[in-house]
Design a protein that fits this description.
- This protein is of the alpha+beta class.
- It has helices spanning 27-38, 81-93, 103-109, 162-173, 231-243, 284-289, 310-323, and strands at residues 15-24, 41-46, 49-53, 61-65, 70-78, 99-100, 115-117, 124-128, 153-159, 176-185, 188-196, 204-208, 223-228, 248-255, 261-266, 272-277, 294-296, 299-302.
- It has seven helices and 18 strands.
- The strands form two sheets. It has a ten-stranded mixed sheet with strand order 17-10-11-12-9-13-16-15-14-18, with helices on one face.
- Helix 1 packs across helix 5 (231-243).
Length: 340
Amino acid sequence: MSGLVPGDGSVFGAVHLGYVVVESARLGEWRRFGADAIGMHADDVDSSTLRFRLDEHACRFLVEQGPQEDVTAVGWQVDDHETFDRIIARVSDRGVPISEGSAEDAARRGVERLWRFPGPKGIRQEIFTVPVTTPEPLRMLSSGWVTGEAGMGHVAIVSREPESLRGYYETVFDSRLSDYIDENVSGLTLKIRFLRVNERHHSIAIANIRGVKIDPIRTRVQHINIQSGSLDDVLAAYGRVTDLGFRMAWSVGQHTNDRELSFYCVTPSGFELEVGWNPIVFGPERESTWEPTTYQGISIWGHTPVGETVLDKFAQFRQVVRTLRTPEITVPALSGGMAR
């Protein structure tokens, strides 16, 4: 268990992003994107299931055949059974339905057992303690990815109910606020909250669009982040994404708050994937002295939009019309943390 765990009943430091589940009808494109462009290890489980590996874990991305073109679940690895039971109790004691996943579900996700419960924006939250690991060598273009105590990366969500999301992850995982970023996008000022649950600067990012009656993002998540082990790998992946004809969303740049150098490209399902390198890490000393602050602008340099077209603008407008009267999915019983 990480040295960041305070031992006061908190689960902070004992939870790590383990895997992401995607539903897509474009498995062939996902294989080409994940393996040939990004450089991950790909396994075809069967004709309707594709998995990607980043490390010794059997599964980090699970792509299942289906029509949604979206992230449907995220899996969180929990260090020990005591912490696992504590999280289960937090959820069930508040009257939120929780159920054990089937043996087939667990096998497809590369874990021994899992339990699941509702999450914000309809993204199921799944927790497990024992990942299935494999001695099979990684076959991938990348030289390596950073996982371990930091988990596999982070999830970024655009929300009209940011306080509810922050409260949810405080209640369930004892998340801590790392910092804020104020950013102007197309004339709209967003306040982005960055939440950590372990040594990674953030495992959840929440972009605030409260007061706006629309959600400009079709998918449940805005992006998923994975961390490369080397700058050379980031730049090589950027070149492959471009050469293979996948859409680049934001050019290479460096963030103001966690100092990660990264680029953003568009997955076959429409949400973005951020490939990054070298963000700051919260060791015990930084954890004990850190004070959240607000940064003006998301990037020190770079991260400029790439290739937005008139058709993209029309697609965004159609999404605005569809979501104008659609309430955002929240889980009120689990949103009572220190949200603000």
